[in-house]
């Protein structure tokens, strides 16, 4: 039972905005925001998970399905993830402040 809960939790985190911006390469984040035709030209690293979700929510493109972001086409999933990302963003705040200072924002190249 614990293994099933862990797998479910990891599946939810795969779509988490914070995981997409902190743990993955900047190119992956940029490509994803281009795919959903987001209006965001850059995502600041501080509270990047919340901003990522905001950019996806307000993108022109279709909301990704189960193989993409995880929540399907329902905007409520992104709103829920914004809250969860806010908590995770707060936990990684020292790291993201450092990365913002050293590397700047995550640029959405060609967006």
What does this molecule look like?
A two-stranded antiparallel ribbon has the order 1-2. It has six helices and two strands, in the order αααβαααβ. The radius of gyration is 14 Å and the shape is globular. The longest helix has 17 residues, at 75-91. The relative contact order is 0.21. The protein has 111 residues and is mainly alpha-helical. The model has no long low-confidence stretch (mean pLDDT 81).
Structure in a nutshell:
The protein is mostly helical and 111 residues long.
The share of residues in extended strands comes to: under 5%
Unreliable residue stretches:
none
H/E element sequence: HHHEHHHE
Averaged pLDDT, please?
Answer: 81
Largest sheet: 2 strands, antiparallel
Neighbour order of strands in the largest sheet:
1-2
Task: Give a topology summary.
Blueprint: H1 2-14, H2 17-23, H3 26-35, E1 42-43, H4 48-57, H5 75-91, H6 93-103, E2 106-107
Antiparallel strand pairs: 1-2
Helix pairs in contact: 2-4, 4-5
Give me some keywords for this one:
111 residues; 4% strand; mainly alpha; single chain
């Amino acid at each position: 039972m614990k293994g099933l809960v862990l797998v479910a939790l990891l599946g939810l985190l795969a779509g988490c905005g914070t995981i997409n911006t902190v743990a993955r390469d900047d190119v992956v984040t940029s490509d994803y925001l281009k795919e959903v035709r987001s209006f965001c030209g850059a995502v600041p690293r501080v509270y990047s998970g919340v901003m990522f979700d905001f950019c996806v929510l307000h993108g022109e493109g279709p909301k990704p399905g189960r193989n993409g972001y995880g929540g399907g086409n329902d905007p409520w999933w992104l709103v829920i993830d914004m809250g969860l990302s806010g908590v995770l963003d707060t936990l990684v705040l020292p790291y993201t402040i450092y990365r913002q200072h050293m590397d700047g924002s995550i640029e959405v190249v060609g967006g």
